[in-house]
């Protein structure tokens, strides 16, 4: 019969393993009722501070086959379609939307702070859609716009209010809508030189942007800086 | 009448030599661990680390009240280099002790605790959960899923764990972690913001592996979540 002995534990000590931590990873739950949603890119690659790929950013869970991602490169779009659970089906060139043939979704980096379009197929009849984006988290920063059109992310993990420093006359903020896009235009009074954001020809408060979503900024000239804050902050 | 232990699942034991030539030991179970009467082990119940020499002699090296939520939390030990010669040519195993004090509590909800020498005051029965031990003393034991792993590491230089991927599966978030080492346990901490992280209730830690990835699972919450992987002492 086996003999079981006990002896002092004096020679034992808890091993001194220093705590180490991975980088912080963010997972954002995006819920939308739109057919076409501007999706934020608030993260970088999981393994580094490099730009995350389109393939890695948007989880395919909950998304219907045929869902498309559109990435605006400043002049035209690249796109992928969800097929067999992967972003691998390029939408061909010469379509009405002017979509070009893209490189692989895995090899297409998305700049942190930018945004992409997610388009649900007609077969996806759900009134509301919830999906997920994820990546390496770092503190959000303000966004300095370039001249022209750009998709901008809400970099927070909450609904964000916008403030814009140094907007140029004629700058526009456009939020997604399945009907007519909602447009905010920065107008400067020619006599007083006082500017204000206007919507439907009336002074307006800039919109809030839900977590995980984004908006268009169409800049008449470069130089405006967009800052983000959680409501109430 | 003595009571004893029934089934332990998923025993993990890792034993390596540290850079300083100390012997490092990590053990844990994934649970649920049960007594012979089928009830889940009580919090603060004891697990014993036992050394079985080549001649079959068993030495209880340590008894520690490591039961929490029905399983053995990861326990790390360091044996001084000078004592390593005692532990050559045998195997390490873990026993679940039944230290319930039935004299005080017929329902077995009271643990007897330790005497002034650090040994359990009451040990009704203990059953090994060592490699290949199918049953002992009439009580069934589980076979370890993982045996002893060995390697040479510098505890002062444990690499930073890295999240390699995230999956959303139903109501769970599955995080794949790389850059792990076998003698270190890893936990997944989550938070609703980047300042407050905690290990979600009901989740545990997983031991690292050599040249392999591990997966950590946590409940998915609505809205945004942040995650980080940490080593544990």
Short structural summary:
Chain A is built from one helix and 22 strands. In chain A, strands 4, 6, 7, 8, 9 and 11 form a six-stranded mixed β-sheet that branches. In chain A, strands 14-21-16-17-18-19 form a six-stranded antiparallel β-sheet, with no helix packed on it. A four-stranded antiparallel β-sheet of chain A has the order 13-22-15-20, with no helix packed on it. In chain A, 2% of the residues lie in helices and 42% in strands.
Description:
- Chain A is an all-beta fold.
- Chain A has one domain.
- Chain A has one helix at residues 54-57; strands at 4-6, 12-13, 25-32, 36-40, 52-53, 68-72, 77-83, 86-90, 99-100, 109-110, 115-119, 129-136, 143-144, 148-153, 160-165, 172-175, 182-188, 195-199, 202-203, 208-209, 214-219, 225-229.
- In chain A, strands 4, 6, 7, 8, 9 and 11 form a 6-stranded mixed β-sheet that branches. A 6-stranded antiparallel β-sheet of chain A has the order 14-21-16-17-18-19, with no helix packed on it. Chain A has a 4-stranded antiparallel β-sheet with strand order 13-22-15-20, with no helix packed on it.
- Chain A is globular.
- Chain A starts with a strand and ends with a strand.
- By secondary structure, chain B is mainly beta.
- Chain B has 2 domains: 11-140; 158-232, Immunoglobulin-like.
- In chain B, 0% of the residues lie in helices and 39% in strands.
- Chain B is built from no helices and 18 strands.
- Chain B has strands spanning 11-18, 23-29, 47-52, 58-64, 67-68, 71-72, 75-79, 91-97, 126-128, 135-136, 139-140, 152-153, 162-169, 172-178, 185-191, 206-207, 214-219, 225-232.
- In chain B, the strands form 6 sheets. Chain B has a 4-stranded mixed β-sheet, with no helix packed on it.
- Chain B is globular, with a radius of gyration of 19 Å.
- At the A-B interface, strand 1, strand 2, strand 3 and strand 12 of A face strand 2, strand 4, strand 7, strand 13 and strand 14 of B.
- Strand 1 (4-6) of chain A pairs parallel with strand 4 of chain B, so a sheet runs across the interface.
């Amino acid at each position: 019969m086996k003999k079981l002995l006990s002896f002092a534990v004096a020679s034992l000590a808890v091993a001194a393993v220093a705590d180490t931590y991975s980088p912080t990873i963010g997972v954002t739950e995006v819920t939308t009722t739109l057919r076409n949603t501007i999706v934020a890119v608030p993260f970088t690659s999981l393994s580094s501070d490099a730009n995350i790929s389109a393939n890695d950013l948007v989880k395919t869970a909950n998304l219907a086959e045929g869902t498309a991602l559109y990435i605006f490169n400043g002049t035209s779009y690249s796109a992928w379609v969800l097929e067999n659970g992967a972003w691998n089906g390029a939408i061909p060139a010469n379509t009405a939307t002017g979509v070009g043939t893209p490189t692989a979704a895995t090899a297409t980096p998305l700049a942190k702070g930018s945004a992409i379009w997610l388009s649900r197929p007609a077969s996806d009849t759900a009134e509301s859609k919830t999906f997920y984006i994820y990546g390496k988290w770092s503190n959000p920063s303000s966004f300095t716009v370039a001249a022209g059109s750009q998709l901008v992310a809400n970099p927070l993990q909450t609904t964000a209010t916008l403030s814009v420093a140094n907007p140029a006359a004629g700058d526009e903020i456009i939020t997604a809508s399945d009907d007519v896009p909602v447009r905010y235009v920065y107008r400067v009074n020619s006599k007083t030189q006082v500017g204000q954001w206007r919507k439907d020809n009336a002074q307006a408060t800039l919109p809030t942007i839900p977590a995980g979503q984004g908006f268009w900024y169409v800049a008449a000239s470069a130089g405006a800086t967009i800052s983000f804050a959680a409501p109430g902050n | 009448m003595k009571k004893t232990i029934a089934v332990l699942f998923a025993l993990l034991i890792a034993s390596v030599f540290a850079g300083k030539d100390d012997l490092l030991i990590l053990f844990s179970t994934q649970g649920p661990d049960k007594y012979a009467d089928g009830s889940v082990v009580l919090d603060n119940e004891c697990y014993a680390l036992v050394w079985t020499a080549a001649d079959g002699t068993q030495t209880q090296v340590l008894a520690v009240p490591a039961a929490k939520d029905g399983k053995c939390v990861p326990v790390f030990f360091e044996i001084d280099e000078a004592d390593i010669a005692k532990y050559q040519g045998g195997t390490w195993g873990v026993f679940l002790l039944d230290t319930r004090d039935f004299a005080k509590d017929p329902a077995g909800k009271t643990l007897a605790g330790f005497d002034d020498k650090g040994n359990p005051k009451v040990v009704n029965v203990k059953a090994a959960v060592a490699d290949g031990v199918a049953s002992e003393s009439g009580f069934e034991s589980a076979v370890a899923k993982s045996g002893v792993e060995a390697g040479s590491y510098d505890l002062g230089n444990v690499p930073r764990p890295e999240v390699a991927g995230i999956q959303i599966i139903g109501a769970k978030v599955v995080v794949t972690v790389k850059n792990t080492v076998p003698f270190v346990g890893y936990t997944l901490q989550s938070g609703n913001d980047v300042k407050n992280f905690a290990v979600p209730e009901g989740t545990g830690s997983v031991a690292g592996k050599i040249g392999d990835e591990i997966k950590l699972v946590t409940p998915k919450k609505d809205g945004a979540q942040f995650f980080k992987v940490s080593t544990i002492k």
